[in-house]
Specification:
This protein is α+β, with helices and mostly antiparallel strands and 447 residues long. The chain has 15 helices and 15 strands. 27% of the residues are buried.
């Protein structure tokens, strides 16, 4: 303060912080070019909601100072860099622990679970930033996520902080899956689906000992899967060829589609399933044929996309805030995760649930302390024409000067007309005469 900061700091109350979060969600619903555009009254896309909730300077001040941990304790943790006691996720731990506990507390997932990686977009230069080329978001922080396959609800997650944080000796994927499957929370009897990054015989045998079933693709060049040239499929094997081999209680299945795919599974190898494929004939035309498909392939494709379901919800309503602090990027992702999980709970509990967008709009309204209906009713109650230079009630005999300003609605059509009237809520000059009634058209366009 003594050095002259831009804004004077005052304490934040819980209701005020909920209003801050409501604008964070609102910016994901209505994406504009910059944060300042949400408070601007001089552009085509000006909106009134943010100005009613909180001044722009106050929102920016809270946003620049938001932390998930005590900065003094962060400094103590930073002093331990280079030692085994240093925790790179220390500044996330308070909120991350609360979000993880809430994810487990409010919903018990169904039988089929999906495990996958999620990337939170950032190019911050930290030791935790990952590059995964096959993901839609290639740069960012990596999260290992456990989701309900039926609806995408995130039941548990782990933020990847480096290989040194995994100590069992079986590798990072093994430790990530074991860490996500909290037996005290889940119990047993679940079926887990994962891709070839996680799949290994050691992992599946361990899950079997915990009474969890597992199914996933695997890499032939990986460590552990059995190999045999006896009756093995080749590149010239006909489409739909199935081969399988059993190793203890694990079943390894190979299926020839356009190329060979491999699965390790708890299911039977084949139960009379078929799928339609297009095949080129000798005369150059295409025909549809029916080929057998293994049961693990059917079940894997059915249940492996749980994490992607929540990613789609987050992508629709996530606001791309740019900042210099990576911990704030994770804070905003936790907000997105909590809001999306809340919507999934809403769809599970209601017979006629709202759409995702309607739910987020109602959530935004309630975080401000109002309802969406009350905000909609307020849109017109305060928007009445008032003089730009009103009469002085203490001196009613004095007539103010004829103050006129250019009408903002006329400017859009490049017509410049001055008016003595303005909107009492927006404080925008607008024509209010019979020849030019700009008051209604202006508010229909901006609201």
């Amino acid at each position: 303060m003594a050095q002259g900061l831009q804004f004077e700091w005052t304490g934040v109350t819980p209701p005020e912080f909920l209003k801050y979060l409501s604008l964070v969600i609102f910016m994901g619903l209505l994406k504009l070019g910059s944060v300042k555009s949400y408070w601007s009254q001089q552009n085509l896309y000006s909106v009134s909601f943010p100005r009613k909730v909180m001044p722009m300077d106050r929102w920016l001040l809270i946003s620049s100072n938001v932390h998930m941990s005590d900065p003094a304790e962060d400094s103590v943790n930073d002093s331990k860099k280079g030692s085994s006691e240093y925790d790179p996720l220390f500044c996330l731990k308070p909120l991350m622990t609360e979000i993880s506990a809430a994810c487990k507390s409010f919903y018990q997932p169904r039988k089929n679970l999906a495990i996958d990686e999620r990337i939170v977009a950032t190019k911050a230069r930290t030791g935790m930033t990952q590059i995964i080329k096959h993901k839609p978001t290639k740069w960012g922080f990596k999260l290992f996520t456990l989701a309900d396959s039926s609806n995408g609800y995130t039941s548990n997650f782990i933020v990847y902080a480096g290989r040194s944080k995994f100590h069992t000796g079986f590798g990072c994927p093994y430790d990530a899956v074991v860490g996500l499957l909290d037996k005290q929370f889940l119990g047993n009897g679940y079926h887990v689906y994962c891709d070839n990054f996680f799949t290994s015989p050691q992992l599946f045998r361990h899950l079997s000992s915990l009474q969890f079933g597992a199914c996933g693709t695997y890499r032939d060049d990986g460590m552990g899967p059995p190999s045999s040239k006896l009756n093995a499929s080749t590149k010239k094997s006909p489409r739909g060829s199935i081969r399988w081999i059993r190793d203890g209680n694990l079943l390894f299945v190979k299926w020839m589609d356009t190329k060979e795919v491999s699965y390790s599974t708890i299911h039977q190898a084949y139960t009379s399933g078929e799928v339609m494929r297009r095949q080129k004939t000798t005369d150059g035309t295409w025909e549809k044929i029916s080929v057998p498909i293994p049961t693990p392939v059917v079940e894997y494709k059915k249940h492996t996309g749980g994490v992607d379901l929540l990613d789609q919800l987050i992508q629709c309503t996530s606001a791309p805030h740019r900042g210099m602090r990576w911990d704030k990027t994770m804070f905003l992702h936790f907000v997105d995760m909590a809001a999306s999980n809340s919507y999934i709970l809403h769809t599970e509990q209601m017979t006629q649930p709202l759409t995702h967008r309607d739910f987020m709009e109602e959530l935004t309204a309630q975080l401000t302390g109002a309802t969406e209906e009350a905000i909609a009713a307020e849109r017109w109650t305060n928007h009445t024409p008032v003089p730009i230079a009103p009469l002085d009630p203490e001196n009613p005999g004095h007539r103010p000067a004829d103050v006129r300003k250019y009408c903002e609605h006329c400017k859009v059509s490049k017509a410049y007309h001055k008016t003595p009237w303005q909107c009492g809520a927006c404080m925008v000059p607008l024509c209010n005469i019979i020849e030019r009634s700009c008051f209604g058209p202006w508010h229909d366009r901006v609201m």
